[in-house]
Write a structure and sequence with these properties.
Blueprint lengths: L1 H18 L7 H4 L6 H5 L2 E5 L18 H7 L3 H10 L20 H9 L5 E7 L26 H12 L3 E7 L6 H8 L6 H18 L3 E5 L6 H4 L1 H10 L8 E2 L31 E6 L19 H13 L2 E7 L9 H17 L20 E6 L2 E6 L7 E4 L9 E4 L9 E3 L5 E4 L14 E6 L5
Parallel strand pairs: 1-2, 1-7, 2-3, 3-4, 4-5, 6-7
Antiparallel strand pairs: 8-9, 9-14, 10-13, 11-14, 12-13
Helix pairs in contact: 4-5, 6-7
Function: Alpha-L-fucosidase is responsible for hydrolyzing the alpha-1,6-linked fucose joined to the reducing-end N-acetylglucosamine of the carbohydrate moieties of glycoproteins.
GO molecular function: alpha-L-fucosidase activity
Protein name: alpha-L-fucosidase
């Protein structure tokens, strides 16, 4: 009996696999694939931009990772002046690579720092628009991290540390285009009627990182100039969803060619630092930076150009309340050090989540996103619990909220506070007023963005 049962189960599983949904290489089919549940449950990811651009590591009111493009392609005067003042006349961008030493890059230390943020996943730059790969690519020849610079497989080391030391999901960023690659420039001159760069460089690189490192996220970028048909984006995504080693777990974004952004693909990025302020109908992500201007490290950034923890939490809370995930970027230095300002912000976010994580992880948007009486309050929901996340602690001893409708069994508490439940009363115009007793500073559950739990509301 047991043997027959097991055999039947095996047949069912095999049949299910054979007849399971396969995705066709067109947007209607690709877009029908659900976002894997793990991504929606975990609301926070950490982005890491690291490459040859980390050597010059300057940005003039702009991103440092675009240094080569700003200097040689767009010919921005500030970058030309910087090179003229600091480097010999025949210096090339490729000459920076030897100084991309990463001598202090310790994947295990990175894993600990990233994990301290309380995030659920990371996305690491495998290749940016400069074309340099952070893995020993078979199609990048001497322009990769094993051939020049660190002489190490940066992607591989980080993957092993993340998967070996943490529960973080491991994702990879891959830039489709390369600003100054001759094959890409020739295809561009031919108005995308030729596809030599795609078939010989871009797609082989994508297949290589997926098959080698099996990332849980494939984050595409560099889609600004050519249509998705040039990149054969739907063809690649159909393979990724049907036959790749990560087909059941992988999450992708929407940057697959002109016309796809904020329309097709997996989660929608729409634009950098996307924060719509209202509930969206499709799963989306706010890819943002701790450095207000740049994704790569900038030596010329001053303290005012870094977000405070209060600003980060305000962005995070608003993002989650409106149904999004936040992907927060850090830019390591060329030597592989994650600067203390980034490490501090990651740790502070982790401290906050250790107290208030229930209001974030596994939550869903409520019918109301932010309160009308107190607009700095944002809401999330989990089962029958409504979380009111207060960005500014009330200046008086009450907190007025317009959205909640109480019942006779409604209870109000403060996450992390051990002093018991809070009294409240109904407001004549609707909503509730929470009475806040005096709380000693050493009894406050956290330093920023406090969370009230509202249970058994009529409108939960």
């Amino acid at each position: 009996m047991t043997w027959l049962y097991c055999l039947s189960a095996l047949v069912v599983l095999s049949t299910s696999f054979v007849i399971g949904k396969r995705y066709e290489p067109n947007w209607a089919s690709i877009d029908s694939r659900p976002i894997p549940a793990w991504y929606d449950e975990g609301k926070l990811g950490i982005f890491i931009h690291f490459g040859v651009f980390s050597v010059p590591s300057v940005g003039f009111n702009s991103e440092s990772e675009w240094f080569w493009n700003y200097w040689k392609n767009l010919k921005v005067p500030a970058y030309i002046d910087f090179m003229n003042k600091n480097y010999k006349p025949d210096f090339t961008y490729a000459d920076f690579a030897k100084d991309f030493t990463a001598e202090f890059f310790d994947a295990n230390k990175w894993a600990n720092i990233l994990n301290s943020s309380g995030a659920d996943y990371i996305v690491f730059t495998s290749k940016h628009g400069e074309g340099y790969t952070n893995w020993p690519s078979n199609i990048s020849f001497n322009w990769n991290s094993m051939a020049v610079g660190p002489k190490r497989d940066i992607v591989g080391e980080l993957m092993e540390a993340i998967r070996g030391k943490t529960k973080l999901h491991f994702g990879l960023y891959h830039c489709l285009y390369e600003w100054l690659h001759p094959l890409y420039l020739r295809d561009k001159e031919n108005n995308w009627q030729t596809r030599d760069f795609v078939t010989k460089k871009a797609l082989p690189g994508l297949y290589e990182i997926v098959n080698t490192y099996k990332p849980d996220i494939v984050w595409s970028d560099g889609d600004y100039e050519a249509p998705d048909t040039y990149w054969n984006s739907t063809g690649f995504l159909a393979w990724l969803y049907n036959d790749s080693p990560v087909k059941d777990i992988v999450v992708t974004n929407d940057r697959w060619g002109i016309g796809a952004n904020c329309t097709h693909g997996g989660v929608w990025t729409c634009r950098d630092r996307y924060l719509p302020g209202k509930l969206q109908t499709h799963k989306w992500v706010n890819a943002m930076t701790i450095d207000r201007q740049s994704w790569g490290y900038r030596r010329n950034a001053d303290l005012s150009q870094y977000l405070s923890i209060e600003e980060i939490l305000a962005t995070f809370v608003q993002t989650v309340s409106c149904g999004g995930n936040m992907l927060m970027n850090v830019g390591p230095q060329k030597d592989g050090i994650i600067a203390p300002i980034f490490e501090e912000r990651l740790g502070q976010l982790g401290q906050w989540l250790s107290v208030n994580g229930d209001a974030i992880r596994g939550t869903r948007p409520w019918t109301t996103q932010n309160d009308t009486l107190t607009p700095t309050v944002w809401y999330t929901k989990k089962a029958s619990i409504i979380y009111a996340i207060v960005l500014n602690w009330p200046e008086t001893d009450t907190l007025k909220l317009a959205a909640p409708v109480s019942s006779t069994s409604t209870r109000v508490a403060l996450l992390g506070y051990t002093g018991g439940q809070f009294q409240y009363q109904n407001l004549p115009t609707g909503g509730i007023e929470i009475m806040i007793p005096p709380i000693a500073i050493n009894k406050m559950p956290c330093q920023w963005a406090w969370v009230f739990t509202l249970t058994n509301l009529q409108n939960a």
